[in-house]
Amino acid sequence: DSKSTFLTVKNNPPEIHSYEINGLSMTQGISIFYGRNLVFSFNVSDTEGVSYVKIALLNENNEWFNITRDYKGTNTEITIRTVDLTGGIWYVYVYVIDTDGTVTSLIDDYDMAPQGIRIIPDVLSSYLPWIVFFVGLIIGVLAGIGVIYKYFKSKFGESQAVSPKKRETTSKKQMPKKKVKPKIVEEDFKEKDSKESIPEKEELKEGVPKRKIKRKL
Known about the structure:
It contains two helices and ten strands; from the N terminus they run ββββββββββαα. By secondary structure, it is α+β, with helices and mostly antiparallel strands. The protein folds into two domains: 15-121, Immunoglobulin-like (Sandwich); 124-172. The strands form two sheets. Strands 3, 5, 6, 8, 9 and 10 form a six-stranded mixed β-sheet that branches. A hairpin with a 2-residue loop joins strand 1 and strand 2. The model has no long low-confidence stretch (mean pLDDT 77).
């Protein structure tokens, strides 16, 4: 008589040894500013081989964010941008899937509470339009003041350049002319006339013939 026996080979589930977020261990609380990235790295293993790693994030409003990547060894990383998330607390769920489709989870298989990540909202972004508006307004006012200052400065410089010329012309007009004393001029003319008349008399004396005076004896 022949007997048949059945052997059931169970799949070895993958193991999650640890993971890190931005270089911090899975037991640390994490706070990150909105706009930065969350980088997950993994330390997992499986006898048959690991095919995928999955990150699921759940916020306080029961909103899920899921991302899955092929596992390519210890250098495998998953990057999540916080700009794709909202501010607040997000809880991390890590899953590992092997080549046979077996899934291991830190929450279900290791009975670990999900790690919380606090994303600090960017308060400045809500006020950024107003900040830009006021900065632009201040720059515009300063530019206007500069233009007005240059305008009045040029006008004032021109007025200063013109005023000395006017003063010079007025001063030239107001300068009194030197009066020649008439007495001195008359005396000069008299002296000249006297000098000219003397040689004329001498010429007349020379030209007149001398008279002979006869005396009676």
